Automatic annotation (TrEMBL):
A Pfam family of this chain: DnaJ
GO BP term (any one): protein complex oligomerization
Cross-referenced InterPro entries: DnaJ_domain, HscB, HscB_C_sf, HscB_oligo_C, J_dom_sf
Gene: hscB
UniProt similarity note: Belongs to the HscB family.
CDD domains: DnaJ
Keywords noted in UniProt: Chaperone
Protein function: Co-chaperone involved in the maturation of iron-sulfur cluster-containing proteins. Seems to help targeting proteins to be folded toward HscA.
Official protein name in the record: Fe-S protein assembly co-chaperone HscB
Domain J: 3-75
Listed GO MF terms: ATPase activator activity; protein-folding chaperone binding
Length: 176
Protein backbone atom coordinates (compact mmCIF):
# COMPACT_ATOMS: atom_id res chain seq x y z
CA UNK A 1 0.00 0.00 0.00
CA UNK A 2 1.35 3.40 -0.97
CA UNK A 3 1.71 5.78 1.95
CA UNK A 4 0.03 8.95 0.69
CA UNK A 5 1.37 10.98 3.60
CA UNK A 6 4.90 9.96 2.70
CA UNK A 7 4.17 10.63 -0.99
CA UNK A 8 3.32 14.24 -0.11
CA UNK A 9 6.08 14.53 2.48
CA UNK A 10 3.67 14.82 5.39
CA UNK A 11 3.65 13.16 8.81
CA UNK A 12 0.75 10.76 9.39
CA UNK A 13 -2.13 12.87 10.65
CA UNK A 14 -5.89 12.80 10.94
CA UNK A 15 -5.88 16.57 10.34
CA UNK A 16 -3.15 17.42 7.84
CA UNK A 17 -2.69 20.85 6.31
CA UNK A 18 -5.27 20.80 3.50
CA UNK A 19 -3.74 23.81 1.74
CA UNK A 20 -0.40 21.95 1.62
CA UNK A 21 -2.13 18.84 0.24
CA UNK A 22 -3.74 20.89 -2.52
CA UNK A 23 -0.41 22.58 -3.28
CA UNK A 24 1.38 19.20 -3.54
CA UNK A 25 -1.42 17.81 -5.69
CA UNK A 26 -1.09 20.63 -8.23
CA UNK A 27 2.70 20.48 -8.12
CA UNK A 28 2.63 16.72 -8.86
CA UNK A 29 -0.08 17.16 -11.52
CA UNK A 30 2.39 19.28 -13.44
CA UNK A 31 5.43 17.16 -12.60
CA UNK A 32 3.80 13.83 -13.54
CA UNK A 33 1.61 14.91 -16.43
CA UNK A 34 1.83 12.12 -19.05
CA UNK A 35 1.96 14.63 -21.94
CA UNK A 36 5.40 15.81 -20.77
CA UNK A 37 6.79 12.28 -21.15
CA UNK A 38 5.45 11.44 -24.60
CA UNK A 39 8.97 11.04 -26.04
CA UNK A 40 10.24 8.92 -23.14
CA UNK A 41 10.54 5.13 -23.05
CA UNK A 42 7.48 2.96 -22.43
CA UNK A 43 8.84 2.16 -18.95
CA UNK A 44 9.20 5.84 -18.08
CA UNK A 45 5.72 6.61 -19.42
CA UNK A 46 4.26 3.76 -17.33
CA UNK A 47 6.12 5.02 -14.24
CA UNK A 48 4.82 8.58 -14.74
CA UNK A 49 1.28 7.30 -15.30
CA UNK A 50 1.53 5.32 -12.05
CA UNK A 51 2.78 8.41 -10.16
CA UNK A 52 -0.02 10.49 -11.67
CA UNK A 53 -2.55 7.89 -10.52
CA UNK A 54 -1.05 7.80 -7.01
CA UNK A 55 -1.21 11.60 -6.91
CA UNK A 56 -4.91 11.59 -7.80
CA UNK A 57 -5.72 8.89 -5.23
CA UNK A 58 -3.62 10.60 -2.55
CA UNK A 59 -5.45 13.86 -3.09
CA UNK A 60 -8.89 12.20 -3.04
CA UNK A 61 -8.12 10.38 0.22
CA UNK A 62 -6.17 13.03 2.10
CA UNK A 63 -8.52 15.90 1.28
CA UNK A 64 -11.65 14.05 2.50
CA UNK A 65 -11.91 13.62 6.29
CA UNK A 66 -13.95 10.37 6.14
CA UNK A 67 -11.71 8.73 3.54
CA UNK A 68 -8.65 9.93 5.46
CA UNK A 69 -9.93 8.44 8.71
CA UNK A 70 -10.48 5.08 7.00
CA UNK A 71 -7.08 5.32 5.32
CA UNK A 72 -5.17 6.07 8.55
CA UNK A 73 -6.81 3.10 10.27
CA UNK A 74 -6.02 0.92 7.25
CA UNK A 75 -2.43 2.18 7.07
CA UNK A 76 -1.98 1.35 10.76
CA UNK A 77 -3.25 -2.19 10.11
CA UNK A 78 -6.45 -1.73 12.12
CA UNK A 79 -8.93 -2.30 9.29
CA UNK A 80 -8.92 -5.67 7.63
CA UNK A 81 -10.82 -6.58 4.48
CA UNK A 82 -13.93 -8.54 5.45
CA UNK A 83 -13.35 -7.97 9.17
CA UNK A 84 -16.33 -8.77 11.37
CA UNK A 85 -15.91 -6.01 13.90
CA UNK A 86 -18.16 -6.47 16.91
CA UNK A 87 -19.78 -3.26 18.04
CA UNK A 88 -20.42 -2.75 21.78
CA UNK A 89 -23.66 -4.25 23.08
CA UNK A 90 -24.85 -0.90 24.48
CA UNK A 91 -24.55 0.72 21.04
CA UNK A 92 -26.31 -2.19 19.34
CA UNK A 93 -29.18 -2.01 21.83
CA UNK A 94 -29.58 1.70 21.13
CA UNK A 95 -29.54 1.02 17.39
CA UNK A 96 -32.03 -1.85 17.79
CA UNK A 97 -34.56 0.65 19.15
CA UNK A 98 -34.00 2.87 16.12
CA UNK A 99 -34.24 -0.10 13.72
CA UNK A 100 -37.50 -1.22 15.33
CA UNK A 101 -38.93 2.28 15.03
CA UNK A 102 -37.88 2.34 11.37
CA UNK A 103 -39.56 -1.03 10.73
CA UNK A 104 -42.74 0.20 12.42
CA UNK A 105 -42.71 3.21 10.10
CA UNK A 106 -42.49 0.95 7.05
CA UNK A 107 -45.81 -0.63 8.05
CA UNK A 108 -47.38 2.50 9.47
CA UNK A 109 -45.86 5.58 7.75
CA UNK A 110 -45.73 8.73 9.85
CA UNK A 111 -43.79 11.73 8.53
CA UNK A 112 -43.39 13.32 11.98
CA UNK A 113 -42.05 10.13 13.60
CA UNK A 114 -39.73 9.60 10.63
CA UNK A 115 -38.38 13.14 10.96
CA UNK A 116 -37.81 12.63 14.70
CA UNK A 117 -36.02 9.35 14.01
CA UNK A 118 -33.84 11.11 11.45
CA UNK A 119 -32.96 13.79 14.02
CA UNK A 120 -32.14 11.15 16.66
CA UNK A 121 -29.73 9.39 14.30
CA UNK A 122 -28.15 12.70 13.26
CA UNK A 123 -27.64 13.58 16.93
CA UNK A 124 -25.85 10.26 17.57
CA UNK A 125 -23.75 10.75 14.43
CA UNK A 126 -22.78 14.29 15.47
CA UNK A 127 -21.77 12.98 18.88
CA UNK A 128 -19.54 10.35 17.27
CA UNK A 129 -18.01 12.93 14.95
CA UNK A 130 -17.27 15.20 17.91
CA UNK A 131 -15.63 12.32 19.79
CA UNK A 132 -13.50 11.42 16.77
CA UNK A 133 -12.44 15.06 16.38
CA UNK A 134 -11.47 15.31 20.05
CA UNK A 135 -9.37 12.14 19.81
CA UNK A 136 -7.71 12.94 16.50
CA UNK A 137 -7.15 16.65 17.07
CA UNK A 138 -3.87 16.28 18.94
CA UNK A 139 -3.00 12.77 17.75
CA UNK A 140 0.43 13.78 16.41
CA UNK A 141 1.48 15.22 19.79
CA UNK A 142 0.84 11.98 21.67
CA UNK A 143 3.27 9.21 22.56
CA UNK A 144 3.23 6.01 20.51
CA UNK A 145 1.36 4.17 23.28
CA UNK A 146 -1.24 6.96 23.52
CA UNK A 147 -1.59 6.96 19.72
CA UNK A 148 -2.17 3.21 19.69
CA UNK A 149 -4.91 3.60 22.31
CA UNK A 150 -6.49 6.47 20.40
CA UNK A 151 -6.45 4.42 17.20
CA UNK A 152 -8.38 1.58 18.87
CA UNK A 153 -11.06 3.98 20.12
CA UNK A 154 -11.23 5.73 16.73
CA UNK A 155 -11.64 2.33 15.04
CA UNK A 156 -14.66 1.61 17.22
CA UNK A 157 -16.14 5.05 16.50
CA UNK A 158 -15.46 4.54 12.78
CA UNK A 159 -17.49 1.31 12.76
CA UNK A 160 -20.29 2.95 14.73
CA UNK A 161 -20.36 5.77 12.18
CA UNK A 162 -20.50 3.27 9.30
CA UNK A 163 -23.46 1.60 10.98
CA UNK A 164 -25.19 4.95 11.34
CA UNK A 165 -24.60 5.81 7.69
CA UNK A 166 -26.42 2.63 6.69
CA UNK A 167 -29.26 3.58 9.04
CA UNK A 168 -29.41 7.06 7.52
CA UNK A 169 -29.68 5.48 4.05
CA UNK A 170 -32.60 3.33 5.25
CA UNK A 171 -34.29 6.40 6.72
CA UNK A 172 -33.75 8.30 3.47
CA UNK A 173 -35.37 5.43 1.52
CA UNK A 174 -38.31 5.44 3.93
CA UNK A 175 -38.73 9.17 3.28
CA UNK A 176 -39.51 8.59 -0.39
Amino acid sequence: MTDYFEFYGLPLSFNPDTAFIKQKFYEFCKKYHPDFYINESDEKQAEVLELSTINNKAYQVLSDSQKRLHYVLELKGLLKEGENYVLPQSFLMEMMDINEALMDLQFDPDAVKLENLKKDVEKVEQGLSKEILLLTDSFEDKTTVEQDNILLVVKDLYYRTKYLLRLQESIAKASH
